[in-house]
């Protein structure tokens, strides 16, 4: 993991240990908590138009920022519990996505990669 992730991982470990929360931080529980936080992030955008979602008020942006942080912190904690290097996992996934979505075949389309699979493979 890159240094910022390592530092945040250590800080999360210390935060949980100081509160005796390790007992609750199983991978299953962390994954469930992550979905709750992701839903809270979605809630920030619920009922907004596309234009409104791209021009948040200062108050709305603060709420979005807090929820993004919650999601990221749970991801860091979960990754630490299962031994995943987030940075490397992201680079690896980007390579997979590049293979699934070749720019010359998917330009300007939001279709799932299965719509672009080569029928000869």
From TrEMBL:
A Pfam family the protein falls into: MazG-like
Lineage: Bacteria, Pseudomonadati, Pseudomonadota, Gammaproteobacteria, Oceanospirillales
Identification of the protein by name: Nucleotide pyrophosphohydrolase
Location of region: Disordered: 97-121
InterPro entries (UniProt xref): dCTP_Pyrophosphatase (IPR052555), DCTPP (IPR025984)
């Amino acid at each position: 993991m890159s240094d910022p992730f390592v530092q945040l991982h250590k800080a999360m470990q210390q935060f949980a240990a100081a509160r005796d929360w390790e007992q609750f931080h199983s991978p299953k529980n962390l994954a469930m908590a992550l979905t709750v936080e992701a839903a809270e992030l979605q809630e920030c955008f619920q009922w907004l138009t596309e234009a409104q979602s791209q021009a948040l008020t200062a108050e709305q942006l603060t709420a979005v920022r807090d929820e993004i942080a919650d999601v990221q912190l749970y991801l860091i904690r979960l990754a630490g519990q299962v031994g995943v290097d987030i940075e490397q996992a992201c680079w690896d996934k980007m390579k997979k996505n590049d293979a699934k979505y070749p720019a010359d075949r998917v330009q300007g389309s939001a279709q799932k990669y299965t719509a672009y699979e080569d029928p000869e493979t």
